[in-house]
Design a protein that fits this description.
about 325 residues, alpha/beta, D-Maltodextrin-Binding Protein, domain 2, 2 domains, six-stranded mixed beta sheet, five-stranded mixed beta sheet, 11 strands
C-alpha cells in the first residue's frame, strides 16, 4: 500500500512538472528580457539612436531590452555574434549598412555571414546622410568647384574620411568614377580628428556624417558642398542627383535584425512592435533634436530590397574602379 501511495505521488509530481514545463514553453513571446546587440562603442551616434529605440520598444513589448555594445571589425564582429545566436527572438542586433552591405561588397573574405541568408530583417530605422565640406574660407564654393579642381589638379585635394570601407569614403570613389576627378583620401580612425585636421589646414576637405558636421556648419566654420540625402534643415545643400548626375550616393542606415529562422509567432510580435517604436512621436522628437538623421521606417521586405540593390551597385562600382576583383 505504501508503495502504491509513493508511486502515486511520483506520478502526480511528474505530471505537475510536465504541465509546468508545457506552460512555460507556451508562454507568449516575449516572456523574458531581449538582448539588443549594438556593434559599436557606447556614445556613437548609432549607439544613441539604438538606445532610444530600445527604450520605446521596451514600453511596447512590455519587457526589458538589454543593450550590449560589441564593437569591432567595422561592426562585423557584433553583427556576426547575432547571426550565430539562438533563433528564439531573444537576441537581436541594431546594425548598419557598413556591416550588412559595405563590408561584404568590398571585403567579402572578412565577412563570416551572408546578410541576406543569415538574418531576418525586422525593419529599417533611420538614415544618416553623409556630406562633403570645406572650410568657410576655402576657394571651393560649390561641388562644381570641387570637381573642377579635382580634374585640373588630380589628387591635390586631400580629403579626410572616417575610413576607406565606409559609405562616406566610398561616395568619393563614386564621384571620381562619375566625374573623372581625382582626390587623395586620408582615413582617420576618429571622426573628430578628421574634422579638426580640416579646420587646422592639414587637409582641404572632409567627408563625414552630416550630423557630425552640423555644429561647425551652423557656427560658420565649414561650408557643406553636398549631402547624400536632402536635409530639410539645410535646403540649400544639394544632393548629387540635384546637380544633374544620374548616380545616387548611398547613405548609411541603421536597422534591426534577428537570426534567420526565428519562429513566425516571434516575428508577428517583433515586426509591428519595431514599426511602432520607430514611428513613436516621442522618439522621433528626441532624435530630431540630435539633428543630422532622417527617420524613415522601411518594412522587412523593403529593407531586404535595399540591401540587395545597394550590394549589387556597390560591388559593381568597386570592381570597376579596382577596389575588389
Amino acid at each position: 500500500m505504501k508503495r502504491l501511495v509513493v508511486a502515486s505521488c511520483v506520478i502526480v509530481v511528474m505530471g505537475g512538472s510536465i504541465l509546468m514545463s508545457s506552460s512555460l514553453h507556451a508562454q507568449p513571446y516575449p516572456s523574458r528580457p531581449i538582448q539588443m546587440i549594438i556593434p559599436m562603442g557606447a556614445g556613437a551616434a548609432g549607439d544613441i539612436s539604438g538606445r532610444l529605440l530600445a527604450e520605446e520598444l521596451k514600453k511596447i513589448l512590455k519587457t526589458d531590452i538589454v543593450v550590449v555594445n560589441k564593437p569591432g571589425a567595422s561592426m562585423v564582429m557584433g553583427t556576426d555574434q547575432v547571426a550565430k545566436s539562438r533563433k528564439d527572438g531573444y537576441t537581436i542586433v541594431y546594425t548598419n549598412a557598413t556591416a550588412m552591405v559595405m563590408a561584404r561588397a568590398l571585403e567579402p573574405e572578412n565577412v563570416p555571414y551572408d546578410p541576406l541568408k543569415d538574418f531576418e530583417p525586422l525593419g529599417l530605422h533611420m538614415f544618416f546622410p553623409v556630406a562633403i565640406a570645406v572650410p568657410e574660407n576655402s576657394p571651393l564654393k560649390s561641388l562644381a568647384d570641387f570637381v573642377e579642381e579635382g580634374k585640373k589638379n588630380p589628387e591635390k585635394i586631400r580629403i579626410s574620411s572616417p575610413g576607406i570601407n565606409t559609405t562616406a569614403s566610398f561616395n568619393i570613389f563614386i564621384i571620381e568614377n562619375v566625374t573623372g576627378a581625382k582626390y587623395t583620401q586620408i582615413p582617420y580612425k576618429e571622426g573628430v580628428t578628421a574634422i579638426t585636421n580640416l579646420l587646422g589646414g592639414h587637409v582641404e576637405a572632409v567627408t563625414f556624417a552630416f550630423s557630425g558636421l552640423i555644429p561647425f556648419a551652423t557656427s560658420g566654420k565649414l561650408r557643406v558642398l553636398l549631402t547624400s540625402k536632402k536635409m530639410s534643415d539645410f535646403p540649400n545643400v544639394p544632393t548629387f542627383q540635384e546637380l544633374g548626375y544620374k548616380q545616387e550616393l548611398p547613405s548609411p542606415w541603421f536597422a534591426l535584425y534577428a537570426p534567420a529562422g526565428i519562429p513566425d509567432e516571434v516575428k508577428k510580435v517583433l515586426i509591428p512592435g519595431i514599426k511602432q517604436a520607430v514611428n513613436s512621436p516621442e522618439t522621433v522628437a528626441r532624435l530630431n533634436k540630435m539633428g543630422g538623421s532622417l527617420i524613415d521606417y522601411k518594412s522587412p521586405d523593403e529593407l531586404r530590397k535595399i540591401m540587395g540593390d545597394e550590394y549589387e551597385a556597390i560591388s559593381a562600382i568597386a570592381k570597376k574602379i579596382g577596389l575588389r576583383k
